[in-house]
Design a protein that fits this description.
39% helix
């Protein structure tokens, strides 16, 4: 962890405080280029936007996929106040960002929450109907 990493993480923590002050969950993130210049910043707006996907990491991954070419995206670093959740981690991977640096781990975050407040997985069944489901997919990834 470099001094610059720590400074940019502090900025992500400031963005988390801004989110909380605005009535949202306390999470903030930014995207920095290879030189450390901040390219974009976001904070959680899931309450005020009434959008459960309005996490800062997801918003930045979308921005990067839309606005950056693949080589530039791969040279960026996302700094975030907390380890990205599964939804955000998937978006970050698909957007091609080069690196993620976070302050709190998911386990550390859980110690700061009241007991019983963790999300649980929805019941799932499958796989099923392979022969039918594969028809629209076959050949797509060639």
């Amino acid at each position: 962890m470099t001094h610059q990493d720590e400074e940019l993480l502090r900025r992500a923590i400031e963005l988390a405080a801004r989110a909380r002050a605005g009535g949202n969950p306390p999470f903030g993130s930014l995207l920095a280029g290879p030189d450390g210049a901040i390219l974009a910043e976001e904070h959680n707006t899931s309450i005020t936007d009434r959008d459960i996907t309005a996490h800062p990491e997801l918003k930045l991954a979308r921005w990067a996929a839309r606005e950056l070419d693949p080589a530039t995206a791969a040279a960026t670093t996302m700094y975030t106040s907390c380890q990205p959740c599964g939804m955000c981690a998937g978006a970050i991977a698909r957007s091609g960002l080069g690196r993620v640096v976070y302050a709190l781990s998911g386990e550390q975050l859980d110690t700061l929450k009241p007991p019983g407040s963790a999300f649980t997985d929805a019941p799932a069944e499958g796989p099923a109907l392979f022969d039918e489901a594969r028809v629209p997919v076959e050949g797509y990834y060639l």
